[in-house]
Design goal:
- The structure holds 2 protein chains of 2 kinds.
- Helix content of chain A is about 25%, strand content about 40%.
- Chain A is α+β, with helices and mostly antiparallel strands.
- Chain A has 2 domains: about 55-210, no CATH class; about 215-435, TATA-Binding Protein.
- In chain A, strands 12, 13, 14, 15, 16, 17, 18, 19, 20, 21, 22, 24, 25 and 26 form a 14-stranded mixed β-sheet that branches. In chain A, strands 1, 2, 3, 4, 5, 6, 7, 8, 9 and 10 form a 10-stranded antiparallel β-sheet that branches. In chain A, strands 11-23 form a two-stranded antiparallel ribbon.
- In chain A, helix 3 (about 80-90) runs antiparallel to helix 6.
- Chain A is globular and about 110 Å long.
- In chain B, strands 1, 3, 11, 13, 14, 15 and 16 form a 7-stranded mixed β-sheet that branches. In chain B, strands 4, 5, 6, 7, 8, 9 and 10 form a 7-stranded antiparallel β-sheet that branches. Chain B has a two-stranded antiparallel sheet with strand order 2-12.
- The longest helix of chain B has about 35 residues, at about 5-35.
- Classes of the chains: A alpha+beta, B alpha+beta.
- The interface between A and B is large, with 45 and 45 residues.
């Protein structure tokens, strides 16, 4: 009698424990199930036309320091920077540790290291954003150390590290790397078909890339595309356009969706501004800041293959994107690049141009030879700008519309100089040509 | 009261609860596996009697290519023998009628014509072309241009033999001398992406067979006297009942379906 009761009690205890364990599994599992569904939906969505985020936020110049000199390299058949990132995705990169900070002399040494391959972002990003872009778990942590250069030694087998460097405070971080080989990177360097001798100079406003000799660069032509205002309003107002109020003044069209959203389209300059007063949450982390910016540009443009993050101002929550051709930025007639996004408590603002590079076309322009950067600084000095006045120098492509063919645009290389917060081509600052005679 | 009876009732209740929980746990697991991948699309297609071979999931790379007009055909037209040749300036094409039509059978036609085009006095630049069963039909044999960068399925680089009564009577030819890479390589959609996308857009009817899925360059547009080519997936779908064959074209960069069924000639834009 007693014995059978013991069995019943024992079985009861087992049954209770099993039910608890099973309910626990179901709860955790339903959570996974729901998340799984979300992933499925987003992947189906992005499948349509995706350019991954790590292509938009990517280093734009690649500098290789051989035994003697530094060279800016590029391969017009294959983007070296994107390929290097692809290789790095398989690496195990440990959490970066600070090596030095605010030591200009040491920084100079680091960025001039021999046999170093250097990838340079146009703007600094945080280490955890880098971890997210490479899908590298150990970098994804909480740390938001800023850097804009990645340095990898391709020859020294003992140096199993990558270095992350930040131009604005001369901080250098070192991260141990496992499961990595320099062989594929060396191959990529060897395949480069554009090779320009450069020197990195530390100046008052940052580290500038100086082209030591006059440089010969090709011109490019592209078919450009744009959209009708109506296509933007359907994409941006994401609801039916019934409540739309339209007004026009001198070619400037305004579309208001109640009091909450507004699109202004200037048909003379083809510049558009979209204000969303409902989007009042300001991103809390740098990763969220860039992710939201990326979502917005995908929503704006169909073709973002050439678009790169150009400047991320975390303090003012301001993002600038520019189009690039063969590693050089394109400067259009606007001051803000191609797309500018600003988040604030009052709402988000997007400035953008309705002209996107769509299809490359063989160019019939002759190659342009530009002066060396030293000559450019001398020319600026002649008109009264000291090297300390210059906030940035960049070789970029100028947007020249062809008068006989509005659909095709010619891109011509020149020096762009930023003084007093304004970008202008060299000839507009000095009345002199940037081209070698 | 009988405490033992309560225990037994509790045991039964918990035991049935366990069974219920276990079953629902298994159910949710099955849901996870079916929703997470698009293998379900593949099984669904198989259920609808759509047959196809192994689908390649590899995402490759391709380029924007350009060609500039050249007179290679016009300059060499004098080398051709035993045929009546006319050259047309606007399309830069050759039309030729053979003096001695070539007898072919369905088994030896490819070998015969492959041999024929090798000789320069028969066909100019014959080595640069390859037979394409996908584009050919009973009345014509189509050879497509092959370069180191890939094949070109387009009317601007094609060699088409006309066949009547089992005889090759003549041909038309267009030629592109060099293709230049206009932009760094870009990732393209895989074969599997394309097929599932076509299915999702109701472009593949039930009870059909995917006969071919080939990646080739085709003309996108003409600008500044040059022709621009982009990579396009050419998918041939054959209805098993009616034997009707349709060719679907999908932009390999974007995955967008190009809405036109003719080969080459049509003009469409990249959004297509």
């Amino acid at each position: 009698m007693k014995f059978s009761r013991l069995i019943v009690q024992l079985l009861l205890v087992v049954a209770v424990i099993t039910s608890i364990v099973l309910s626990f599994f179901i709860w955790t599992n339903t959570a996974r199930y729901q998340r799984g569904r979300n992933i499925d939906v987003t992947s189906a969505d992005s499948n349509k036309n995706e350019v991954p985020m790590n292509q938009v936020i990517s280093p734009t110049s690649v500098i290789w320091h051989d035994e003697t000199d530094q060279h800016l390299i590029y391969n017009s058949n294959e983007n070296i920077s994107l390929s290097v990132q692809k290789v790095m995705q398989d690496w195990k990169i440990a959490t970066p540790k600070l090596v030095s900070k605010k030591d200009g002399a040491y920084y100079q040494k680091v960025i001039h290291g021999k046999n170093m391959l250097q990838l340079v972002y146009p703007t600094s990003i945080a280490t955890n954003v880098f971890g997210y872009l490479l899908n590298n778990d150990s970098l994804k942590g909480e740390k938001e150390d800023q850097f804009n250069r990645i340095l990898i030694n391709l020859k020294d087998k003992k140096d199993q590290n990558i270095y992350l460097a930040n131009d604005s405070n001369y901080a250098v971080y070192k991260a141990k790397v496992k499961n990595a080989s320099s062989v594929p990177l060396t191959k990529l360097v060897k395949k480069a078909n554009i090779n320009l001798k450069v020197r990195l100079n530390i100046m008052k406003h940052g580290v500038f890339t100086f082209y030591v000799d006059p440089i010969k660069l090709k011109g490019y032509s592209y078919v450009i595309s744009g959209k009708q205002d109506g296509e933007y309003t359907t994409a941006l107002f994401d609801s039916n356009t019934n409540g739309l109020v339209t007004s026009e003044d001198n070619g400037v069209y305004s579309y208001n969706y109640g009091e909450s959203k507004r699109l202004t389209s200037d048909h003379n300059t083809e510049e558009l501004t979209f204000e969303d007063y409902t989007d009042t949450s300001v991103p809390k982390t740098q990763l969220a800041f860039l992710q939201r910016g990326y979502q917005k540009i995908i929503n704006l443009q169909d073709s973002i293959t050439n678009l790169r993050l150009y400047n991320a101002d975390w303090k003012n929550k301001d993002l600038i994107f520019r189009e690039y051709v063969e590693g050089f930025p394109i400067f259009k007639k606007s001051q803000f690049g191609s797309i500018r996004i600003k988040f604030s408590r009052k709402g988000s603002t997007e400035h953008f141009l309705n002209k996107v590079l769509e299809v490359p076309v063989p160019s019939n322009q002759a190659a342009t030879t530009l002066k060396s950067t030293n000559e450019i600084f001398k020319g600026l000095q002649r008109v009264g700008f000291s090297p300390n006045d210059v906030q940035a120098v960049e070789v970029g492509y100028q947007w020249e519309a062809e008068s006989d063919n509005e659909k095709v645009v010619d891109l011509k290389p020149t020096y762009y100089i930023k003084i007093d917060g304004h970008w202008k081509p060299y000839n507009e600052w000095t009345n002199e040509s940037a081209e070698e005679d | 009261m009988d405490f033992k009876r309560i225990e037994v009732i509790f045991l039964i209740v918990f035991f049935s609860l366990d069974i219920f929980l276990f079953l629902s746990f298994r159910n949710s697991q099955q849901l996870v596996s079916s929703s997470s991948t698009n293998t379900s699309t593949i099984t669904e297609m198989k259920k609808r009697n759509i047959t196809f071979g192994n689908l390649d999931t590899k995402n490759g790379y391709a380029y924007y290519l350009g060609s500039q007009p050249d007179e290679a055909l016009a300059q060499n037209v004098g080398k051709l023998r035993n045929q009546k040749v006319s050259y047309e300036d606007t399309n830069r094409s050759i039309s030729s009628t053979l003096s001695n039509p070539i007898k072919i059978t369905s088994t030896d036609k490819v070998a015969t014509m492959n041999k024929f085009i090798k000789k320069e006095s028969n066909v100019l630049f014959g080595k640069d072309y390859k037979y394409s069963p996908q584009l050919s039909s009973g009345s014509q044999m189509v050879y497509v241009a092959v370069s180191g960068l890939g094949e070109v399925y387009d009317k601007t680089a094609q060699l088409t033999f006309s066949v009547s009564n089992n005889e090759v009577v003549g041909y038309t030819q267009t030629y592109v001398k060099t293709l230049i890479i206009l932009h760094e390589k870009q990732a393209i959609k895989s074969e599997k992406d394309i097929i599932t996308n076509l299915y999702a857009n109701s472009e593949i009817p039930n009870n059909s067979r995917i006969a071919y899925a080939n990646l080739a360059y085709t003309k996108l547009l003409e600008a500044k006297d040059s022709t621009i080519y982009i990579p396009v997936w050419f998918v041939t779908i054959k209805n098993k009942d009616s034997k009707v064959v349709t060719v679907k074209k999908v932009n390999a960069f974007t995955g967008n379906i190009i809405k036109s069924s003719t080969n080459g000639d049509s003009s469409y834009n990249a959004q297509g």
